[in-house]
Hints:
N-utilizing Substance Protein B Homolog, Chain A; 75% helix
Amino acid sequence: MSARSKARKRALDFLYEADIKKVLALELFQARGATELSQEPYVLTLISGISDHINKIDELIITYAQGWDMDRMPPIDRNILRIAIYEILWADDIDLQVACDEAVELAKSLSTDESSGYINGVLGRIIKLKDSIAI
């Protein structure tokens, strides 16, 4: 598993915990201490970026996750989508297909049997429309 894959999983852990506890992921991450922050720069990049763009990211999930309300979507799927959408739209150094593939792999290992296909479909629509999405 690559360092970035591990960072995505670690960021997902924070995002999921924050979602369940109804707190901000960035605050949860920062509460862990400066030592951990310095050891996980890409985790911080993901959590900070998602925090900065959460309203737009969630708007896109609501728009393209047809048939699912944010409240009905499993929290793990919601947060996998948040990571991938952030990487697709704001992380210029990440290949679009890599962001999508990593999200699908996280869903396969951590969520339901149907989640990986569903996440792949949502991200595929976002990738296709990326240039027309106002960010």
